[in-house]
Amino acid sequence: TFTDMAAPQLTSRVEIIVSCKNLPDRDVMSKSDPMCVLFMKTPTSTHEFGRTECIQNTLNPQFNHKFQVDFCFEERQVVIFRLYDVDSSRAALQDHDFLGELETTVGELVSRRQYEAALTKTGSTKKSLIILTCLELQECKLIANFRVEGVKLDKKDFFGKSDPFLEIYQPMDEIQTESEVPRVRSWVLVHRTEFIKKNLNPKWAPFSIPLNRLCRGNRQLLLRFDCHDYDSDGSHDFIGSFYSSLESLEQEVARSRSAQRTLISKKKKSAGTIVFSQIGIETIDSFVDFIQGGTELHFTVAIDFTGSNGDPRDPRSLHHVSADGRPNQYELAIISVGEIVQDYDSDKQFPGLGFGALLPPMFSGVQDAFSLTLQPENPYCAGMPGLLAAYRSCIRAVRLYGPTNFSPVINHVASMAAAHQTGAQYFVLLIITDGIITDFEKTKQAIIKASSLPMSIIIVGVGDEDFSAMEELDSDDKRLRCGSMIAERDSFLCVASFRVAALIAAGMPWRRRYWRSFRIRCASG
């Protein structure tokens, strides 16, 4: 037999962009507030992959959030797009009105590039459409940083000033001049800024866009910039637009320190000026770059030994160690994350911690951060087998108690990360728990302090407890705050429920001075 080690893997990453037309209206006094949720369907289960943002008061949403999916040529990857009318801030989908769905495959989307189909199960007689644009992402480490402002924008509100926001679109066709615009089949939303209230000279927050998303890596591609006046009912007023390539804007900023473009209204008149005070192209190092450059991951596990887990001798306990060797939910979480991280830890020596238990021999005084080996001077376990063995031995020796305090174990690992800030070491803390955090405010403070360190925190919830309160700690949309403290970055991920075959996507953004962002993905079971 012969194995061709140089054969390429038939795998690539694609970006799926979602928009809809004519969605059902579930709100009585206004229009629906739609959100799209992507599910991955396998022969044995269906699990949520991700969600777009919610757009208020519209039946024709163009979602800014894009889904990035690994496309495997040799697999039939079934995906389901489900639309919901968001009725509250709760994360549970059953709390929102279902608008319809589409089931298809990633292969179908890739082959068509832009796919339009009717939603099913809408409960409405009118035809609702979903438009899915699928683009292959070329490997690109470049990112464009923007500072943009408006000057003397047109006033659209009768009793006040406009509330402007800016949108950037890329064409589905390769065009470089405005004369080619009429032949463009469609435009895809790339980025939408926040809106600035009652201001005709807005200064939007700085933003960054990867070049492969902005212009498919082609700086000469002609982009469309639209400016609108925000209205809460979704009927945003068009202020004006213009066309420009990234290359043209870059060159003008380099020559004159800024680039100015005139917004053209529907009446073909000037509607104000958009000023680009900064356009900087930056190279982002990847996870592979750092690992190959010598960066090591240091993996620590912290396990919840509080009484709410149940008596380990009871088969119903989350800590029950079965005689036939079947892993419990705690062990599944350790294995699923640990098997990924251990490949990047050269010595394979993992500190194992516990919290919320009474320790032998006295069983007096709750320990908030103790070693699974029950040897404070030697908390290290030899590889995954050693970590699992230490856990099984510990669960038989300690007494489950409480409370569920996270801050001590976070501060423990943070102290190690604080001593290694050269960029050569990165620390990953996995906390596995069954319950609600007792020291929530102290945990927020600990996470914020750790956000400036080379450290990421993953919390995996096991059992059937309600973990929705932990979502506040996962600052994907805005940085975590506690009083006057603000996190430097999002260093935290909460997996609200751990199940076999669940996908754990652990974001590990790196401090700007030394590191950049990467993701770890693993499927358990």
From TrEMBL:
Pfam families in the cross-refs: C2, Copine
Q: Which GO terms describe its cellular component?
A: plasma membrane
Keywords attached to this Swiss-Prot or TrEMBL record, sorted alphabetically, are: Repeat
SMART domains in UniProt: C2, VWA
Gene Ontology BP terms: cellular response to calcium ion
Q: Matching PROSITE patterns, A to Z?
A: C2 (PS50004)
Under the heading InterPro entries, the entry gives: C2_dom, C2_domain_sf, C2B_Copine, Copine, Copine_C, VWF_A, vWFA_dom_sf
Domain of life, per UniProt, equals Eukaryota
Entry's Gene Ontology molecular function annotations: calcium-dependent phospholipid binding
Location of the C2 domain: 1-119, 121-259
Report the family membership.
Answer: Belongs to the copine family.
Q: Which protein are we looking at?
A: C2 domain-containing protein
Q: Which organism is it from?
A: Macrostomum lignano
